[in-house]
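The material for today's practical consists of a large collection of protein records. There is nothing in a record beyond a sequence line and a structure line. Backbone structure tokens are a discrete shorthand for how the chain folds in space. Nothing more is needed to start thinking about how sequence determines fold. As an example, a complete record with its sequence and its structure tokens follows.
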Amino acid sequence: MSSPAERSTEPTAPGGKPPGRARRSSFLSDLRIVLVERNFRRLFATRLVSQTGDGLFTAGLGGYVFFNSANFPNPVSGAVAFAVLYLPYSLVGPFAGVFIDRWSRRQILVWSALIRSSFVVLTAGLMASGELGVPLYAGVLAVLGVNRFFLSALSAALPHVVPDGKLVMANSVSPTAGGIMAIIGGLIGLGVHVATGGGRGEYALTLLAAGCCYVVASLVAATIRRDLLGPNHDIGEQRPGRVLDEIGAVTAGLAAGARYLWRRRGPAAALGAIGANRLLYGILFLMSLLLYRNYFYRGAGANAALGHYAVLTIASGIGYAAAALVTPQATRRLAKPAWIALLLIAGAVVVGPLGQTFEQAAFLAIGFCLSLTGQSMAICATTILQEQVEDGYRGRVFSFYDMTFNVTFVLGAVVSAVFMPETGKSQAIIGLVAVGYALAGAGYWLLGRQASGSAASGPGSPWPAAQRSSS
């Protein structure tokens, strides 16, 4: 039931081409092709080192907040931690481009990584002192807010280091490899905590290791020529206006994107399905943390709880990876909306019976199944948006996707924290989550069926027959 604290939504290549759909190829073959480009290798290395640091930072922070031997977490502190970890990406992301299109992107990479490392040092100091409150969360918020600019600059810089013919491949492999390194960094951090006993000093050192990764990422980015990554402004091209005007234009553009979505039931329904899944997943994610720390291993200690929670993280990671194998096969036989509805119903079938047992083996199965469900839905929803949203609105719609993905997750944790016991064990909440999955699946299915009866197949159609193609 693991959920990466760092999520970079980079679903399309320029021109609206979905990554990896232009040609059938493997991740490794695509990676070999784009690694031929020298400057891509430098930008790629910058991403890999930085996102390894992201994994270490998340492991250190999560371990300190939830598996600290000095205290037992409660639902409210968990919900606050989720809000700090997830909301910066959604709230800062749409406005980051205002600055990325006017400042040197190479300099953004260099300086944002260094600034992040300084905030990490401050946060590690607070952690070593035993701080768990507003100052600590302010430091974390600063680290993650700056990271949003770093990730956005990486995406904007990519077309400057690979030719157009390789851009789809580069867009496919870069975020995937970065995500893998974040997971590896997180598992390394968890392993160190388990091996050393997981005191607050060890958690602080994990954060400092993340800070070192950010410094290395800055040094690697500095090897790229300063003017190589843009932004480039051609003669006669309109340059960015005043910052406040640009921010106002972004706000107006988001409002126009919201009106566009309101008129198109297919993309709106896909976002709604993602939001419903993330809302319910947020409840279960908070519950799983409390169960492992305060119920399953309350007497055994924080380190034992952390070690067994790492097993749950691995099971969830396997489910996440399995989605990439299962979903293409499933969507050759079912329309993508039908597969999404079936996945939501499957969530109800898995969570209801297994969750009520409150056994660790059952939660390992739930973690695997819900990670597979969530990632499969994300693959389908992303493809639906790519197929049905006009190119002129696609960027704004994916901004809403990013917001929906993170905000609903936090909302689920915040709302459930009011009712959830400190141990996390609540049969009533499990029952409500199972019912929620069933209602979401049925609602999405009915909404799609109604739309298919009133709209012709094609762009903008919410339930077109063409969606039976492989995602």
Notes: Residues 263-471 form a domain with the Growth Hormone; Chain: A; fold (CATH 1.20.1250.20). Residues 4-24, 453-471 have pLDDT under 50 and may be disordered.
